[in-house]
Amino acid sequence: MRVAFLENKVLQVGILIDKGADLFEFTYKPRDLDFLWQSPIPLRRPFVATSALPEGAFHDYYYGGWQEVLPSAGWAEQPYLGTYQGLHGEISLLPFEAHIKEDSPHRVSLHLSTRCYRSPLLLERTMTLDAETPVLSISERLVNESPEDFAVMWGHHPAFGEPFLDDSCVVQTPAKMVRVLEYHRNGLWEPGDDYRFPQVKNRRSGELQDVTRVLPKGTRSVDVILFGASTRAGTGSLIGGNVLDSGWPGTSAYSNAFGCGRSTEGITTIRGMAARTTARSSHSRAGLRSESLRRSRTVPR
C-alpha cells in the first residue's frame, strides 16, 4: 500500500495514498508524540467483507487517524440522485494519484487527486510543510464535472488520542452556543440545542458543567456536540447548526504544555512549546513509498 511522508525537524506527517489520502500519523518529533488516535483494530489492505453493512464500508476500514469526508457526512441513509453515498461518503475509501510538487530545504509539498465513482466530483489536495513553521497547510479544489448541480457535504474527520489526549486537555473554540444531539445510550450530556457556551447539563449528575474540559477515560461516554456562533432570534436554537463567526477549534493538553488546532490558513498548528522550536527548524523532506503499515505504539496507562 502506497504511503507518503512529509517531514521537517518539528513534524512528521504520514499520508495513506491508497486509502483516501488519510493522515495516519501526525507526530511532534521533539517528543515523538503522535496526536492521532489509533484503533486497536489495525489497518488492513482492501478486502471483501462477509456481508455489506447498511451504512457502507467506512467502519470496516476505520483504524483511527484523519479522514476527509465527501460528498456526504454522517449516515446518509437516503439515496441522492439515484445512488447511495454511504457513511461519510466515498472519498475516504478511494485511492489517490500523488506526486511530489516541491522538495527543497525550505518547503515540501505533495499534490494528490482522485475522482469519485458514484459522484461526478474531482478532488485535488495540496499538502505543504514549511521548514520553519510547525504547520501543515492544506489547500483543496473540488470540481463538479457534470453539467448539473450537485449538492455536497465536505469536511475533515480527525480523531485525536493518547498519549496526547488526556483529562488535562481543554477544547478552545469561539462558540457562543452548544447543541447536544440524542445519539447514544452512554451519552454524558443532556441533549438540547439551547445551551450557552460552555455550560451543558450533565445527565448523570443533573448539574451544569464545562463541556470544553476533556474527561477521564473512565467516564465512558459517547456524545455528539455541535458548537455554534449565535441563536435564532427568540428561540435560543442554533443558527446553521455548528457555524462559527470566525476561527476554528483547538485542543490544548496542559500535561504536555502544548496543543493542536485548526485555522482557515494552516489546517493543523502545534502551539505552545512547539511554537518555540520553529527557529531551529531548517530542513524539510518528502518521500513516497510502498510499505506495510503495521505500527506499534507505547501508550502510558
Structure description:
- The chain is an all-beta fold and 301 residues long.
- It has 2 domains: 2-164 and 268-290, Beta-galactosidase, Chain A, domain 5; 174-228, no CATH class.
- The chain has no helices and 20 strands.
- The protein starts with a strand and ends in an 11-residue tail after the last strand.
- Residues 233-241, 266-283 and 292-301 have low confidence and may be disordered.
Please describe the topology of this protein.
Elements: E1 2-8, E2 11-16, E3 22-28, E4 33-34, E5 66-69, E6 97-103, E7 107-115, E8 121-130, E9 135-144, E10 155-158, E11 169-172, E12 177-180, E13 192-196, E14 199-201, E15 208-210, E16 225-228, E17 250-253, E18 258-261, E19 268-272, E20 284-290
Antiparallel strand pairs: 1-2, 1-20, 2-3, 3-4, 5-10, 6-7, 7-8, 8-9, 9-19, 11-17, 12-13, 12-16, 14-15, 17-18, 18-19
Q: Can you list the strand order of the major beta sheet? A: 6-7-8-9-19-18-17-11
Helix content: under 10%
Give the domain tally: 2
CATH topology of the largest domain, what is it called?
Beta-galactosidase, Chain A, domain 5
Given helix and strand content, the structural type is mainly beta
Helices and strands, in order, run as: EEEEEEEEEEEEEEEEEEEE
Distance between the termini: 32 Å
Proportion of strand residues: 35-45%
Reported CATH architecture of the largest domain: Distorted Sandwich
Low-pLDDT runs of 5+ residues are 233-241, 266-283, 292-301
Overall pLDDT metric: 83
Assembly state of the chains shown: single chain
Our count of helices gives 0
Would you state the CATH class of the largest domain? Mainly Beta
**Rg, nearest Å:** 20 Å
Report the principal-axis shape. globular
Number of strands: 20
Q: How would you sum up the major sheet?
A: 8 strands, antiparallel
